Amino acid sequence: MDEQLELYTEYPQPAEEAETAANIVALMEKFMIKNFTGGRMLRDVHSKGHGCVLGEFTVHADIPEEFRVGVFKDPKTYQAVIRFSNAGALAPIGGTAPDIKRDARGMAVKLVGVPGEKLLSDERNADTQDFLMFTPNVFFCPDPEGFLELMDALTTNKLVFGWYLLTHPSVSLSLIASLKKHANLLELQYFSAVPYKLGDIAVKYSARPVLKRTSDLPNRPTDNFLRERMQAQLDQESVNYDFMVQVQKDPYAMPIENGLVPWSEDVSPFIPIATIKIFRQTFDSPQQMVDCDNLSFTPWHCLPEHRPLGSISRVRRNVYQAISKFRHERNDVPREEPTPGDIGDL
Questions:
Q1: Rounded CA separation 52/258 (Å)
Q2: What pLDDT digit, counting tens, does each position of 287-337 carry?
Q3: What is the pLDDT of residues 172-208, one digit of tens each?
Q4: How many CA atoms lie within 13 A of 103 on its CB side?
Q5: 227 burial class (0-12, 13-18, 19+ CB within 10 angstroms)?
Q6: Which phi and psi angles does 164 have, rounded to 5°?
Q7: Is the pLDDT reported for residue 1 higher than 70?
Q8: Average pLDDT of the residues of the chain
Q9: Of 30, 143, 245, 273, whose Cβ has the fewest other Cβ atoms within 10 Å?
Q10: Spatial contact of 55 and 279, defined as CB atoms under 8 Å apart
C-alpha cells in the first residue's frame, strides 16, 4: 500500500471486498451441505461449541477518559452469555474434530441489556453487544482474499493444500503458531486478532484469566474432554477474566488492514477496563447445548462506537450474516437475541 497511512484509519476497496464476500459465502455453504451428516447443521467455522456459560461483564470505574464510550461509558455490570468453541481450522467446513487435535479456540462474549441502535440493519432493536476472540493474537491470513485462497486450497485436496502452504510461508507460520493442543479452555488468553473502533481510536481486545494456571493434557482424552473439564471446574468455582484493550500507536507497525501483523505489546500494552465473571453453573445439558448452538455471534452486532475495522472485518459483515441465516433456515429455528428476562433459561 503506497499511500500515507494514518492512525485509526481504514482503506476499503468496496467492489473487491463485496466479490470476495460472495465467493466465501458460496464456498462455505457448498461445504456445509457436503459435510452435513444429519441432525442440526453446524456453523461453517467454530463448528464445535463446548457450551455457552452465563456470567457478568463489569466495566471498571477508573478507566481512562478516551475509553469511556459505548458499553464502557459508565461503570456498569451487564449480564453475559459466553460461547467457547474449537476454531475448526483444519476440520471439515461445518464439521468437528476431537478436542485433542491441534486447533485455535474461541471465546465469543454477548452482553445482554445493551440499549442503542446496532450496526446490523436486521438487529437494530436487539439490546445485545458481541465481542469475538480466539487464542491467536493475529488472524490466519492478511486479508479476505488470502482467507478465500486458503479455504479454497483446504477444501480441494491435500496436495493442493500442501502446495499452498509451501508457497505461502507467512500464512503457514501463522497456522503453525496458532494451532495448539490445549488442556483447559478456562486457562487460555483470547484475542480479537483484528482491530475495532473505540470511539475515535482503534484498539484490539483481549480476555485473560485472572488466575494463572496450567493444566496437563489428559492421558486418555475423550473427544469432548475440554467441555468435560470446563463443566467440572464450574461445578466447583467461578472464573474471572480481565477484559483489556490495546491501542493502536503506529499505523505501519500496527496496521488496520493486515490481519497477519501482530501489534507489539511492548509498544502498546493491554490495559484492563472490565472484568468478566463466569458463574458456578451447569451448562452442558442436551437442551442447553442446543440453545447455545442456536445463538448467533458476529463482530458487527455492536454499537457504532465499537465498529469492526479492516478488510477482514468488512467482509465478515456479509459472510457472518449470510451463513447465520443459511444455517438457521436449514435448522428451521429463528434467529433471536437473548433478553435480560430470559437469559437464565439458556
A1: 31
A2: 999 999 999 999 999 999 999 999 999 999 999 999 999 999 999 999 999
A3: 999 999 999 999 999 999 999 999 999 999 999 999 9
A4: 25
A5: buried
A6: -60, -45
A7: no
A8: 95
A9: 30
A10: yes
The half-sphere exposure of 38 on its side-chain side, counting CA atoms within 13 A, is 0
The whole model's pTM is what?
A: 0.96
Give dist(CA 263, CA 259) in Å, integer. 10
The SS3 of residue 85 is strand
Q: Which residues contact 306 (CB under 8 A, 6 or more apart)?
A: 70, 71, 129, 196, 197, 198
- Give me the residue label for grid cell 463482530: 299
Using pLDDT thresholds of 50, 70 and 90, give the confidence band for residue 341. confident
As beta bridge partners, residue 196 has: 203, 308
- Pairing relationship of beta strands 190-191 and 196-198 according to DSSP bridges: unpaired
C-alpha cell at 148: 478465500
**CATH for 14-345 (3.40.630.30, 3.90.700.10, 3.30.360.10, 2.40.180.10):** 2.40.180.10
SS3 222: coil
3-state helix, strand, coil in the chain (%, to 5): 30, 20, 45
Amino acid present at 66: E
Give bridge partners of residue 342 from the DSSP assignment: none
